[in-house]
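Input/output pair, single chain:
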Amino acid sequence: MQNDTANKDQHLKNFEDRIGTMENKDHINPDHYKSHPSGIECIRVTEHMGFNLGNAVKYIWRCDLKQSAVDDLRKARWYLDREIAKRVKAGDSE
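Output:
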């Protein structure tokens, strides 16, 4: 019974620590949105693009500012593939 109480207390402490960490972060504009070497925030460029191209640029723009550049580059490729397919379907092919 004492172990159950200790486990619950530790679980509660871990939860409170995570909540405290979350409250201190800016979830709307996290650091990797604002830390590009150019000093420009990505949205200032991508808001002038269509959805697929804007997202591809966003993932390329921030890929080296986060933990896994390869994951972000794969996401960019996914959006580029969608944009290519959309344009080919519309008759805008090579």
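The two ends are 71 Å apart (CA to CA). Residues 1-27 form one domain.
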